[in-house]
Design a protein that fits this description.
Elements lengths: L1 E4 L1 H9 L4 E6 L12 E3 L4 H5 L8 E5 L12 E5 L5 H14 L3 E4 L9 H7 L8 E3 L2 H6 L3 E5 L5 E2 L9 E5 L14 E4 L11 H17 L2
Parallel strand pairs: 2-3, 5-6, 5-10, 6-7, 8-10, 8-11, 9-11
Antiparallel strand pairs: 1-4, 2-4
Length: 217
């Protein structure tokens, strides 16, 4: 189970067919239409149980799904030991927008059902498969695993990303380890003195490069 806060996110979960266990609403607030039981909370209770400082007046408990890779998968975004919920949510959101078929977090990453992650996905979590898996599982699915690095690898625009591919970004502080069992390395050339891009921004750049190349295929 996990918690979804806000009528908009909850409506997207319902539209995508997720099972709602229960809704909890602040006094005077309208619930989002579903078959789940609705409980009206006493004044000021939702402020104490929600995870935000200024919570929305509706929250719900949603049944978690077991994420799986789709059959014939050929484009996956991967986050290796990612730590920040905001980055995780943005990667899921960008992956959906770019047409990825799944988002994979390696073991040890932030929980993709963390309330902050759920909010940052802006609803994408309910429409794209999200799962935890080892790199070996991606290679077993026939995907070429390409990891990103700030200091070595081929420029992402010079790399053919049109075949079955899993593009992997790493931990915010340490990146993907140089000895990771991957099939190749990508880098994003950039100007200035900054060592690297924010990991969610890098993932977005790469995801849309995959999308661009596939439109021209």
């Amino acid at each position: 189970m996990f918690v979804v806060e806000g009528a908009s996110l909850l409506a997207q979960a319902i539209a995508a067919g997720w099972e709602i266990e229960a809704q909890f609403v602040a006094p005077g607030a309208d619930d989002v239409v579903s078959s789940a039981p609705v409980f009206e909370l006493a004044p000021n209770v939702i402020e104490r149980v929600a995870s935000t400082e200024a919570p929305q007046p509706v929250l719900a408990v949603v049944r978690q799904r077991v994420g799986v890779l789709p059959s014939a998968v050929d484009f996956v975004m991967v986050a290796d030991h990612l730590g920040d919920p905001g980055n995780a949510g943005t990667i899921i959101r960008s992956a959906e927008a770019a047409g990825a078929q799944a988002v994979v977090f390696t073991p040890g990453s932030v929980d993709p059902y963390n309330p902050k992650v759920v909010r940052a996905t802006a609803g994408s979590l309910f429409r794209i498969p999200v799962l935890t898996a080892e790199i070996a599982a991606l290679r077993s699915a026939g995907l070429r695993v390409l990891a990103t690095s700030s200091h070595h690898g081929a420029a992402y625009t010079d790399t053919d990303l049109r075949g079955p591919v899993a593009v992997m970004v790493g931990n915010e502080a340490h990146g993907v380890p140089d000895d990771a069992p991957v099939d190749g390395w990508l880098t994003i050339p950039h100007a200035g003195a900054a060592e690297s891009l924010n990991v969610a921004m890098a993932a977005t750049v790469l995801a849309f490069e995959v999308a661009r190349q596939r439109r021209q295929r």
